[in-house]
Amino acid sequence: MTLQDSPFLRACRGLPVPHTPVWFMRQAGRSLPEYRQARADVSMLDACARPDLITEITMQPVRRYDVDAAIYFSDIVVPLRAIGIDLDIKPGVGPVVAEPIRDAGGVKQLREIEPDDLTYVTEAIGRLVGELGDKPLIGFAGAPFTLASYLIEGGPSKNHEHAKAFMYGEPELWNELMRRLSAITLGFLRTQIEAGASAVQLFDSWVGALSAEDYRASVLPHTTWIFDQLARFDVPRIHFGVGTGELLGLLGEAGADVVGVDWRVPLDEAARRVGPGKALQGNLDPAALFAPWEVVAERTRDILSRGGAADGHVFNLGHGVLPSTEPDVLARLTAFVHEQSAV
Ligand code: 1CP
Prior knowledge:
The structure is a single chain. 49% of the residues are buried. By secondary structure, the chain is α/β, with parallel strands linked by helices. The strands form two sheets. The protein has a seven-stranded parallel beta sheet with strand order 1-4-5-6-7-8-9. Strands 2-3 form a two-stranded antiparallel ribbon. Strand 8, helix 15 (293-307) and strand 9 (313-317) form a beta-alpha-beta unit. The longest helix has 25 residues, at 171-195. It contains 16 helices and nine strands. Coproporphyrinogen I (1CP) is lined by residues 26-30, 44, 71, 73-76, 89, 91, 94-95, 140, 156, 203, 205, 320.
């Protein structure tokens, strides 16, 4: 097998596969004891800047689970830190921004990212590509709306009220913010692709907070620009958000090759909403992994069957692995997906 023949890349492209490929969002870190050990005396942002730790943590779930792809260990706020935004990742909280961006002066701080800002990314991916052989490495970045929410709110937010107030109240400045964040996102993804990542995922985790109308007017043009710019690299582009049932058609329009679906919409219905010519990724409820195995198995069979309605299916959870998930369940699930879908 070669890298380009790997089941993951083939499924992303809608080509026939020997089995449905599987990986898990947030598989690197979180629930693994070896991850907690590797991170014992290193802060999250320091870990994200150390090629030795990035390589080790990215490889940990690949060794454990036999998943079909690795995801680069980093965080969506790493490129913002790399251009000098004062922020930290607080244990048990998430990204916290020292001075939330609320005006034109704040927006102007968001300069373009250069490869020199990300030398540790290039070095880590070089090592990873060597270790992974014919297994694909997924690069990723946060999408502009999700990054804007952290920057404007100053940290994790349930209602995104400051971000929405900015979006509704200052549309021109909002568009400038989106343009600058889109350039940073593209720069971060481009560095990963040029270093050897063979697919990319755009995490727009919080975009489900928007109505379809607001998404179309204030976010879609920017996401579309990112996917257009990525087209020339010829790597599959995955687009993921949570609570996006009402936005699936628009996510399809934005231009990704693969649309990620959370657990709320069955994949056959998601395929109808997204439209033809796109692969789907998802969509087992991460909380279902705490139920008895028979429940996990039955739901997995159902997802595999409904996934057949799409032009390509990558099995995944509907959102990230929850930190208290039992690692053995993920190993068992990976083997089960491979076995049930084998042709
Ligand atoms: O598989 C992996 O774990 C790979 C690495 C990875 C990824 C893909 C991390 C490490 N973060 C992310 C993406 C990310 N980061 C997203 C998109 C995915 C998703 O929706 O889950 C988001 C929204 C963030 C922001 C973030 N960073 C949060 C969420 C906070 C909130 O708003 O609820 C948190 C808790 C972090 C910290 C973080 N990122 C990654 C790890 C392992 C950690 C925990 C670190 C620690 O606390 O020590």
